[in-house]
Amino acid sequence: MKKIILSLAFVAVLVSCQDKTKEKIDEATDAVGTEIEQKVDTVAQEIDTIGQKIKTAADTVQSKTGKALEKGAIKLDQAAQKLKDASTK
Description:
Elements: H1 2-88
């Protein structure tokens, strides 16, 4: 009888420990999932920020290139006018 009671107590302890262990595993899994979601959100925000910086830099380069081309076109027009004036003299 004593062995039966001890066996049942031992089984009860094992079952109780399994439940607690499962709860801890579930909590740890949830915590890891939450942390991963936060990291993904952070990385997504950083990618968006980098994308905006690249777009701004590209717009600046395009603007500067356009201005340089305009200045070059004006100088070509001036040179062409000088050649035209020189040829009429």
